Structures are given as C-alpha cells and as structure tokens.
From TrEMBL:
Main location: membrane
Protein name: Copper-exporting P-type ATPase
Free-text function comment from the UniProt entry: Involved in copper transport.
Record carries keyword Cell membrane: yes
Lineage, highest ranks first: Bacteria, Bacillati, Actinomycetota, Actinomycetes, Bifidobacteriales
Keyword Disulfide bond: no
GO MF term set: ATP binding; ATP hydrolysis activity; copper ion binding; P-type divalent copper transporter activity; P-type monovalent copper transporter activity
Record localization: Cell membrane
One GO-annotated biological process of the protein: copper ion homeostasis
Family: Belongs to the cation transport ATPase (P-type) (TC 3.A.3) family. Type IB subfamily.
Top-level taxonomic group: Bacteria
GO cellular component terms listed in the entry, alphabetical order: plasma membrane
Keywords of the record: ATP-binding, Cell membrane, Copper, Copper transport, Hydrolase, Ion transport, Magnesium, Membrane, Metal-binding, Nucleotide-binding, Phosphoprotein, Repeat, Translocase, Transmembrane, Transmembrane helix, Transport
Length: 292
C-alpha cells in the first residue's frame, strides 16, 4: 500500500479506537482467514464470580471456603480473586497460607492450619492423586452450565467444589457472527476445561473450541494452524496470550487487558469490543483495495 493509504487507514482506525502499531500489520490483516480468540477476558468480561459451593457432607461450607480463600489470596488469577471476594462477602476470617506455590494453568497449593492444601482444576488434583470419583457428576453438571469448577483438598482428601462463572461480553456473539459472515474460521483457545469451554463456545457461536491448553502451549496452537497454511489473527488479553500474539500473523490485544499483551500485539482494541476485530480486518481490506 502507498504511504498515503497507510496513513489514512491508520488514522481511521485510531478514530475508532483501533490502534494499529505498524504499516505491516495494516497490510497483512486483509489476508487473514482464521481468527483465534482467547476465552477469559477476551470473549468474556474476565470478572468471574462464585456461583456454587458444593461441600462434602462431613465438611462445613465455611471451612471449605476458608481453605479456598487462604490458598487463593496470594494469587493474581481472576478465578482466585472471585474466591477471595466470596470469602469476604461471607465475612470469613481467612488464615494465611504458608509455602504458597502456583502451578500455571492448573492451580495453587500451600499449608493452611497445618494441613497440606491444594486447589485448582482436575489436572491439579490428578497430579496429587486426589480421588475425584465422588464429585464427577457435580463437575459435569457445573461445566455443562458453562461454569468453571475448581476443586479444593486438604491432606489428600477432597473438601468440595467451588464453581466460578464469567459472563460473556454483550457484543461477543454478534462480533463472532460478523467474522463468520466474512468467511473467517473462528477458533476459541483456552486453558479452561473442555466441557466449560464448549458450553461458552456454543453460546457465542464459534466454529471450534480448543480447550485445556497450558499457558506455554497457546503459541504452539497458533503455529499449528499456520502450519496448515492458514493466516492467523490472534486476539487476547492476558500475559498467557503474549507469545501467541507475537507468533500470529496479526496479534490483537484487548485494551482493558494486561500491558504485556498490548506490548506484544500489532493492534490494540481500545474499546475492548470484539466488534473491532472484523472492523480492523475490513479496514485493512479497504486500505489494500484503495491502492490497487
Ligand atoms: P484462560 O486461558 O481461560 O485465561 P488459564 O490458563 O489462566 O485460563 O487457567 C486455566 C485453568 O487453570 C483455569 O480454568 C483453572 O481451572 C486453573 N487455574 C489456573 N489458576 C488457578 C488458580 N489460581 N486457582 C484455581 N485454579 C486455577
Ligand atoms: Mg484471557
């Protein structure tokens, strides 16, 4: 494209809250055929809340929440913040966790009231040999409702399940329909479990869901799509998404997301609205058409 066309395109983007950081990004975006969307914070608001607390019959509900809040208090994860907020809402006195440790994409562990405690997803429990059989039906029901079930255990025994759910942003569904109408293949990529991810994926109408992806593997998923000959746009908000944003042909960051994501992206969506993804691609197409 000519320097003038690029300037016009960049200016039109900026006027609409679409910050395009390089001429290349504006030129490449027109050829994109696949859009990869992160779930938490990108398709959803990223402000999860506790929706269900299911405790073992011999465990008091407040004891489950006290352990969970103690374990999650040092964590910066949005799921952790939801659990700490629930503990506060219930006015619980939460002890400190000693030897706190975080396993990226899986959960947290630490010593609470002298007991070895852990919390997180099924993989986190499996790694410590926790028996999940008694809560399998609870897990399936919660996940089928699009909620994220988190498990908590003390001294090798499960205490219960706390479900956390996030709400889909109001424009995500129409934005994804817009992308599909442009002939784009839309993929949701998430570290969340498959059942929860599928439920959200159905709500917003993506073509495909790739779930249970560890933070360090998101970039590899983008590369895999590129190896199929696709031109990939990646949209994300988290530190987790940064390597995938760099790897993608075009990386788009949610303006309300982390600084790391914005620094790693080619385009920043200041309004944090997924409608600006098809808008950015259309802008690129218009820019390219103008110079032909
Ligand atoms: P996403 O890709 O959706 O942003 P993450 O990669 O951050 O998700 O996390 C993936 C999964 O790991 C979560 O859905 C949750 O089950 C588990 N997990 C991660 N961090 C925590 C935590 N602090 N407490 C409990 N579970 C966690
Ligand atoms: Mg995210």
């Amino acid at each position: 494209a000519t320097p003038t066309a690029i300037m016009v395109g960049t200016g039109r983007g900026a006027a609409n809250g679409i910050l395009i950081k390089s001429a290349e990004a504006l030129e490449i975006a027109h050829g994109v055929d696949t859009v990869v969307l992160d779930k938490t914070g990108t398709i959803t608001r990223g402000e999860p809340r506790v929706t269900d607390v299911v405790h073992r019959a011999d465990v008091a509900v407040d004891d489950l929440l006290r352990v969970a809040a103690a374990l999650e208090r040092p964590s910066e994860h949005p799921l952790a913040k939801a659990i700490v907020a629930e503990g506060e809402r219930r006015g619980l006195t939460v002890p400190n966790a000693d030897g706190f440790e975080q396993v990226p994409g899986q959960g947290v562990r630490g010593i609470v009231d002298g007991k070895e405690c852990l919390g997180g997803n099924a993989a986190m429990m499996a790694a410590s040999g926790i028996d999940m059989a008694p809560v399998e039906h609870v897990r399936d029901r919660l996940a089928g409702e699009g909620k994220t079930p988190l498990f908590f255990a003390a001294d090798g025994r499960l205490l219960g399940v706390i479900a956390v759910a996030d709400t889909v942003k109001p424009t995500s569904r129409e934005a994804i329909a817009g992308m599909r109408a442009m002939g784009l293949d839309v993929v949701m990529l998430t570290g969340d479990n498959a059942r929860t991810a599928e439920a959200i994926g159905r709500q917003v109408g993506v073509d495909r869901v790739v779930a249970d992806v560890l933070p360090q593997d998101k970039e590899r998923e983008v590369r895999r799509l590129q190896d199929e000959g696709r031109k990939v746009a990646m949209v994300g908000d988290g530190i987790n998404d940064a390597p995938a944003l760099v790897r993608a042909d075009v990386g788009l960051a949610i303006g309300a997301g982390t600084d790391v994501a914005m620094e790693s992206a080619d385009i920043v969506l200041m309004r944090s609205d997924l409608n600006d993804v098809p808008a950015a691609i259309e802008l690129s197409q218009a820019t390219i058409r103008n110079i032909k």
